[in-house]
Specification:
The complex is a heterodimer of chains A (112) and B (114). With 112 residues, chain A is an all-beta fold. Chain A contains no helices and 9 strands. Helices cover 0% and strands 45% of the residues of chain A. Chain A has a 5-stranded mixed sheet, with no helix packed on it. With 114 residues, chain B is mostly beta strands.
Chain lengths: 112, 114
Amino acid sequence: DAKTTQPTSMDCAEGRAANLPCNHSTISGNEYVYWYRQIHSQGPQYIIHGLKNNETNEMASLIITEDRKSSTLILPHATLRDTAVYYCILNAGGTSYGKLTFGQGTILTVHP
Amino acid sequence: DAGITQSPRYKITETGRQVTLMCHQTWSHSYMFWYRQDLGHGLRLIYYSAAADITDKGEVPDGYVVSRSKTENFPLTLESATRSQTSVYFCASSEVGARGSEAFFGQGTRLTVV
């Protein structure tokens, strides 16, 4: 699977939108963009994923650029409980299905 | 209870001992995975299984053995534990979906080898 690049850390004020960027300039046509987060010491939690269209669920929105070389995860109204490490991961399925490659992720700190 | 559970949550063992970490899921997901996470690092895949009796190596399989005789269980065995295997171990499961699929992770087993 292709590699992703994320900022090491970001801050956000409580109640504001948190926009987490991810670069994946070598993404393949069949690779989905997945976002997971890991709250301190817990197992990773799935947030959202998409192929080329923007996606929204109850937790977040995912904006993928038209050329698919980058994406942004948006938490619309961040709370203190959103403080976590956020991972942007590419996965194609097929023989690599479900085998997630975790990078260092972005440490998001939400401040009161 | 529905979900994915790992046991034990915490384990201390001595170098050279065999230890087995258990993982159980109630969704009948086809795929199951074992990851390890070392302090300050991301997760790395140890082994995975696409179905009962089908397992394959991940990125860091050395020193580990897995089996999957039943769909719902995926135990991970350290045959002769070493200090370098001190880590937090996460089990996950997922199902094949037409549009990709999310993985569900357990709460982890914190293993210390002394």
